[in-house]
Amino acid sequence: MYWCDWGSNPKIEFANMDGQNRQELVTRGLYWPNGLTLDDLNNRLYWVDAFLDVLEYYDFKLHKITTLLEDGILLHPFGLTSIDDKLYWTDWYNPVVYEADKKTASNANILISGLSRPMDIHAYDRNKTLPGKDLIQTQAVTIIDHHSFSLLHCFLLLCSLKNYEKRKLLIAESIRLIG
After folding, report:
1. Calpha distance 117→101 (Å, rounded)
2. What DSSP string describes 19-76?
3. What CATH number did the domain enclosing 18 receive?
């Protein structure tokens, strides 16, 4: 398991699932690290920092930290998730959900707007079954909105994932219906 600590010495740590073998992974260049998301396919751990306004990742193979985005559209990033070749994050100062390519994040754009103050976001891979859940034919994105304390749970049909515009419309429609 991985977690981030703001504290007097901000850091990102990891440990076995039983809490044993606790170790520090990232101890420099952090202030308010948030939104950890693990990319198993590329062996990376991504995070955003709400104070430094950066989107970064740690490469487990190279043991190297890479900054994908600095400042610019990152005003106060908070939640972060990844699925397939995309990253999604929330921002408190610009209440939207962004989407960007995992490799460079240079193509970041607003995917969902009109939220109050989105806090966290989670994506679920259709090929990985969660305990008690059957997600074989769907992908899901959950957005936690701070002001309404509502969960916006949007299921994306597998057939629509290939077409970006259809996926964007499905998310927007799901939020309109649920919200």
Report:
1. 23
2. S-S-EEEE-SS-SSEEEEEEETTTTEEEEEETTTTEEEEEETTTTEEEEEEESTT-SS
3. 2.120.10.30
Q: Which residues contact 84 (CB under 8 A, 6 or more apart)?
A: 125, 161
Phi and psi at 176, nearest 5°, equal -65, -40
Q: Residues of 80-98 as b/e, b for ≥16 C-beta within 10 angstroms?
A: bbbbeebbbbbbeebbbbb
Task: Give the whole-angstrom CA distance, residue 177 versus residue 179.
Answer: 6
Q: Which residues contact 26 (CB under 8 A, 6 or more apart)?
A: 11, 12, 33, 47, 58, 65
Q: Name the one residue in this structure whose structure tokens are 């749970």.
A: 153
pTM for the predicted model, two decimal places:
0.74
Cα(168)–Cα(156) distance, rounded to whole angstroms?
9
Query: How many separate domains does the chain show?
Result: 1
**Per residue in 40-94, pLDDT tens?**
889 999 999 999 999 999 999 999 999 999 878 899 898 898 888 899 998 888 8
Q: Which residue range(s) make up the domain with 36? A: 2-178
- How long a stretch of residues is the chain? 179
Q: Which residues are within 8 A (CB) of 18 and not within 5 positions of it... i.e. 6 or more apart? A: none
